Amino acid sequence: MAGFLGWTLDAFDFFVLVFLIDTLAAHFRVDKKAIVSTITATLAMRPLGAVLFGLLADRYGRRRLLMANVVFFSLVELLCGFAPNYTVFLVLRAFYGIGMGGEWGVGASLAMESAPPKWRGILSGIVQSGYSIGYLLAAVAAQFVLPAWGWRAMFWAGGVPALLAFYIRWRVKESVAWQQHRAPTVGAIVRTAGGHWKVFAYLVLMMTLMMFLSHGTQDLYPDFLKTTRGFNLKIVSNLAIVFNIGAVLGAIVFGHLSEKLGRRRSMIAALALALVMIPAWVFVGYLPALAAGAFAMQVGVQGAWGVIPAHLNELSPDATRGLMPGFAYQLGILIAAPVNNMVYALRGVLGYAGALATFQTANILLLATVVSLGKEQKGKAFARSPGSS
Length: 389
Fold this sequence. Notes:
Helices cover 80% and strands 0% of the residues. It is mainly α.
């Protein structure tokens, strides 16, 4: 619950911005590209948060660092609502990236280490579905909070997640696996991670392509719907709710399937679904058909993502499970951070729909190849059983 809610609220704070691109550009009197660049700044700063919070979580425990992380990103999000100008807003979104970068690695390691191995797949999907739930909640806020109280209230609502720290403090226990494999020093954690650099490099490559997949299909999609299809904010937010319901469904279903089919096969099946849905996702103009295409597209996209928390934690060494999965995840974000600028630039050559479709077709084919060539350790034991040495 702590891992799921942490990622849900973190994602809400991130996706609030994608519904405010036009509003913020007008308010701060800057071009829309400048607002898109604040998204890039957030993505680019996430690896720093993964290293900072991940190292400390491996050294001092998952629970305390998860509390600190939730409070940090919530306070920064709250301050975004008070930004007096574009420069301050840009700096705050960069700082927010540090908090967002730390949450996933710490929360996922705590959740996966606490889950029974046979339930790891479906619980992996549930934890990862928090990302889509957060997007869905941001869409709801865009429909009800924004018209009533303005854009600043959208960010002020992002301060509420700080209350989750109290739940973690009172109800969440520390990971037994962390207690058993706790490294004596931060240096020992770094040396262990360095000794597994080949695994880490593979994870970074896979996560870079996964980031191209998720952010390339989600971040600019509301803007595409408004500018190319001419839909108003209410229709766009309703479509976002629809396709995020599909994303939640996909994450849980394919996460569960990964216990039977294996991590890699489940991811490839989800990617195949996303690939065949690209035409319906961007090229149709009929609203119900477009909604169905967007729904099915995100079933596939987040279906692949639903396997990731379990897959990355199983491939990582015991002593660095707080650092390595989260750092690989967020380093992938750093490399993929220009994705929105790339797609936005391609639209001038291929059109908005053509840019989205071409980019994702190439990315999905490459990602499926990388996943198929990798390894997996489904069902790996994280904690030693009583009496074992």
